[in-house]
Design a protein that fits this description.
alpha/beta, 3-stranded mixed sheet, globular
């Protein structure tokens, strides 16, 4: 079952990338907000936010078939729902001959599962009073970007140089950026800064991400995975701030490298999205409640 889910999600991401659509560039529209569950009101996160927001619906509200029915509505005939993945944990049984085990030999193991949701626009009959109003966010996006970086825990030093490239240096734990005025727009500057900040979360004293701490030569699979994490994480942060920040100029080349990684490893996109969400949460100093839908 788990492998089927990995294949299903990976094929959806591959199909988008092959069309030139990078789903994590703007996980949701700032006008309507993040895709959310119609009953709980909670936003979907990680890979779920990316996939649901890429569907093109105006409404941010999603619900399961049974939730729609419980609200007094019904799903329109002929429409198809969309998968939402979550981790379900179960305890393994102790080994029968493990006499030295102090905690009963049980271990929590994650198993990937999914359920199907429908957008509000795919339903009819739900009373208007049961549909929340999605208020657009109104704030200074650039100020929001500054706040995000200002309040990042264990923030690395940012150095500005005229060398014309941005990168994170693990050895010195520093982010190097071109001067702000050299970027075409403020959104490009902050998108790039977020990208490098996400890289920095992989340091041993932060999240200790293997794709950053290990040997990852340029062009290797691990290098592409780390770039995927940084791009997704930057996308989450851009969406949080209400900007659209393209961070990579040579998108076509990166798309091809991502496609190769996803085709070689069917688990890569879900793992990378989870790591990217953790990185964004770290930068935002946010501890999400345990929620199986996220």
């Amino acid at each position: 079952m788990s492998q089927k889910i990995y294949d299903l999600i990976t094929e959806r991401i591959i199909a988008l990338l092959e069309k030139g659509v990078i789903p994590w560039r703007r996980p949701w529209d700032a006008a309507s907000g993040a895709p959310r569950n119609l009953v709980s009101g909670k936003p979907y996160r990680g890979i779920n936010a990316m996939l649901l927001s890429s569907l093109g619906f105006t409404s941010p509200w999603f619900a399961t078939f049974h939730q729609v029915k419980a609200l007094g509505g019904y799903v329109k005939g002929g429409v198809h729902g969309f998968p939402v993945v979550f981790w379900k944990f179960f305890e393994t049984s102790p080994a029968p001959d493990d006499e030295d085990d102090q905690d009963g030999g049980r271990e929590r193991m994650p198993l990937l599962r999914y359920y199907t949701v429908f957008n509000l626009e795919q339903t009819e009959g739900i009373p208007a009073g049961k549909i929340p109003t999605a208020e657009p966010r109104r704030f200074d996006s650039i100020e929001a970007c500054e706040r995000i970086m200002e309040h990042m825990p264990k923030r690395p030093e940012t150095r500005y140089t005229a060398e014309g490239r941005a990168y994170y240096q693990p050895g010195t734990d520093t982010v190097t950026m071109p001067h702000r005025e050299t970027f075409a727009t403020p959104a490009h500057f902050y998108g790039t800064w977020f990208h490098e900040a996400v890289h920095s979360t992989g340091a041993p004293h932060r999240l200790a991400r293997k794709s950053l701490t290990g040997w990852t030569p340029f062009g290797s699979a691990d290098y592409s995975r780390e770039e995927l994490v940084a791009e997704m994480g930057a996308g989450f942060l851009c969406a949080q701030a209400g900007i659209e920040g393209a961070t990579l100029e040579n998108s076509a080349a990166y798309i091809q490298s991502w496609l190769q990684v996803l085709k070689d490893d069917r688990r890569a996109v879900i793992v990378a999205a989870g790591q990217a969400q953790k990185a964004a949460d770290f930068i935002l100093d946010y501890s999400p409640e345990e929620d199986p839908a996220n």
